[in-house]
Amino acid sequence: MATTATVGNKSLWAGGVAPLKASYGKLMMWFFLLSDAFTFSGLLIAYAFIRWSAPAYKGNPDDFVFSTEYWPIPEKVYDAFPGVHGQEWPLVFVGLMTFILILSSVTMVLAVEAGQRMDKKGVVKWMLWTIIGGIAFLSCQAWEWAHFISGSGVATIGDVFLNGRWVEDYEIMGAGLSFNQYGPPAFAALFFFITGFHGFHVFSGVVINIITFFNAANGMYEKRGHYEMIEKVGLYWHFVDLVWVFVFTFFYLI
Amino acid sequence: MEQTSNVVVQPVDKNKIRGIWKIAGILAIITAIEYVFAFTMDAGLLRNVIFVGLTILKAFYIVSEFMHLGHEVKGLIYSVILPMIFIVWLIVALVELEGGAVKSSRGIVDYNPAGSEQVDDSH
């Protein structure tokens, strides 16, 4: 930095300068995240397009029943909570998941902050909390998927394509990729695809967090003289949180 | 080569930590407001617009503060934000216009329980 300042007439594009004032690794992480955001945008566009062109339920929400003929009201689908039976707790569990992920994002910011102060103990502590948050989120998602797949309540009667032929008035329980008890086949397929793709990102993030956690604990970054790796991993982790904010809105609220 | 012993740990900046938790509090409050709308307001276009608006507000705080983009150079901010603005344009165009057009051209109609009273008529 100091050497480039002395060369005043140097061309901006001749190399040796950093116009964006970010290191190579951080910059590439930003552009990777941008391309990843395009991927998620594609998925959310597909979801919203299919949903927008599907029949909607226009009746009183209190009288709502599941049918394969129209798109379900999300809070009627996601109303279960572990250990609670026979009661409707709409959106409470997904609220807990959101809360966990936001908290783990906060602990990641604290890890980055500790790294900037060269505080190894702080980095290790906050990275550990971030990993715990990530694993807690994944566990919640595993429960939610299991509940979504096995289904609950009354079976939905609908025509399904099963083993190569159409079956009329089939009792649909739970959800699979080809049909589900909650709504049109695309409803569950999109749910699996998009929350699954996000969950896989969380899983990768947890793995990367664990690697950097051990590196930090072994003093690798202290020897290196900076904790920039924590900042780069932090960017990825916040992105995962960011995507969840959108998935939460489009899947569970709207 | 062994320099681990003379690493100086800088003291904690209390204001910075407080700032981080403040952003976390804002995110929690926005989510709480979303829940209030989800339970007190009927579904419709207005509610969806409110949800998307609050989501973008949350995204702004995460990207700007947690990911530190708000404190980067202008060039970096724009190279990330501008492509996303075009994506939002595409989303609005595809979902709002194309989705609606496909729905009407395919003759897909919404399900209205009032028009399906044949169940009640049977008895």
Please describe what this structure looks like.
With 254 residues, chain A is mainly α. Chain A has one domain: Four Helix Bundle (Hemerythrin (Met), subunit A) (Up-down Bundle). In chain A, 62% of the residues lie in helices and 6% in strands. In chain A, β1 (156-162) and β2 form a beta hairpin. Chain A is elongated, with a radius of gyration of 23 Å. Chain B folds into 2 domains: 13-71; 73-109. Helix content of chain B is 69%, strand content 0%. Chain B has 4 helices and no strands. Chain B is elongated, with a radius of gyration of 24 Å. Chains A and B meet through α2, α4 and α8 of A and α1, α2 and α3 of B. Chain B: The chain crosses the membrane at residues 20-38, 45-64, 76-97.
Determine the fraction of residues in helical runs of chain A and give it as a percent range: 55-70%
| Overall mean pLDDT of chain A | 89
Q: Helix content range of the residues of chain B, please?
A: 55-70%
- Structural class computed from helices and strand pairing of chain A: mainly alpha
Low-confidence stretches of chain B: 117-123
What is the CATH domain class of chain A?
Mainly Alpha
User: How many structurally independent domains of chain B?
Assistant: 2
Q: Count the E strands of chain A.
A: 2
Distance between the termini of chain B: 90 Å
Order of helices and strands of chain B: HHHH
The number of helical elements of chain A comes to 8
Q: List low-pLDDT spans of chain A.
A: 1-7
Quote the distance from N terminus to C terminus of chain A: 49 Å
CATH structural fold name of chain A: Four Helix Bundle (Hemerythrin (Met), subunit A)
SSE map:
The complex is a heterodimer of chains A (254) and B (123).
Chain A: H1 2-6, H2 24-52, H3 74-77, H4 92-116, H5 120-150, E1 156-162, E2 165-172, H6 185-217, H7 220-224, H8 228-253
Antiparallel strand pairs in A: 1-2
Helix pairs in contact in A: 2-6, 2-8, 4-5, 4-8, 5-6, 6-8
Chain B: H1 14-40, H2 45-66, H3 74-105, H4 118-121
